[in-house]
Structures are given as C-alpha cells and as structure tokens.
Amino acid sequence: MSTFGQATRKRLEQLRKQGQNVPKIMEEVMEGATIAAVERATELTPPNGSTISGTGTRSGDMAQAWELDSITKPVMTGGSVRTTLANNLQYASYVNDGHRMDQHFVPGLIINGNMLEKVDPKLGGITVGTNTPYVKGKYMKQAAIGRYKNVVRWELDKRVKENFK
Asked: What is the per-residue pLDDT across 24-68, written as a single tens digit (0 to 9) for each?
C-alpha cells in the first residue's frame, strides 16, 4: 500500500497530465482539509459533554485555540503549499498526549457535591493524584491529521474522476 505522500503525488501528477491548474487545486484542497482537521480537533477537545464542572475547571479555551492558532489559508512558498494545525495553549500537549499525575495538595480547591470549587486557601484544599497515576491523552491532533489526510485523498480522487468524464 502506498503512503499518503506517494498517493497524493500520484493524484497531482494525474491532474497535471490532464492539464489542470495543480497549484490552485492544491491550495483549494489543502484549505478545505485543514478546516476539516480544525473542526475535528475542536470536536474532540474537552469540554465536550464531560461530567467535571465547577469554578475554574474547563472553560473551552483549548477548543477555541485550535481555530485561533491554526492557519487554514494556504501559504505558497516556491513549489510548496503550507497550512498549519496548531494549538498554542501551554497545556494542550498534556491533554493531547496524556501525562503523569503525581499526588499533591491543591490549596483553595474543594469538592462541593460533584463540583470543584475555588475557596480561600485558608479553608483547606484537596489532594489530587491519589487514584489516577496517569491521565490518558485525548489524541485530538492525531484524529485531526487523519481527517486531513482523508479529505485530501477524497478531494483529489474526486477531481481526477471529474476530469475523466
């Protein structure tokens, strides 16, 4: 089976032989694929229906950062076209890839029913990391890259078939 790069080059060469404007096609396909990748990453980024809630827990900033930090409009440099899927929040890689959880005390954070609540640190706090030594990653970036590749394959195949009609 061919790699993504080999299959993409093959489709672009077929379009070139058909007399198509390949740079324009690359630009259009990459923009659409990057937008689809950003949408997929945003869908999978917490909070997305999870049960943890409370003061200062999950704001949705990380999901918004995919749209703010990614560059979906293709940038042409020489013979290449570039778009960027990015999330520049400091903790994004920990949520994506997972992280170790050492047991430690958090002053000023308490559990009130099923809600986390910030209070004056003088009132106490909670110890976290007692039940969970490792937090699994959500792998939003990898799923988004998969969506990007699928959209590129599908769009290039569609354009090659359209030109054979």
From this structure: 999 999 999 999 999 999 999 987 665 555 555 567 889 999 999
Q: Does position 8 have pLDDT exceeding 60, yes or no? A: yes
Contact 63, 42 (CB under 8 A): yes
pLDDT of res. 163? 77
Q: CA dist 39 to 9, 10, 30, 154, Å? A: 25, 27, 14, 17
Cα dist. 22→4, 25, 77, 82 in Å?
17, 5, 14, 14
The single-letter DSSP state of residue 67 is H
**Neighbouring-strand partners of residue 118:** 109
pLDDT of residue 54: 54
pLDDT of residue 27: 94
DSSP state of 87: -
DSSP 125-136: EEEESSS-SEEE
Determine phi and psi for 78, rounding to 5 degrees.
Answer: 60, -125
Tokens matching residue 116: 């986390």
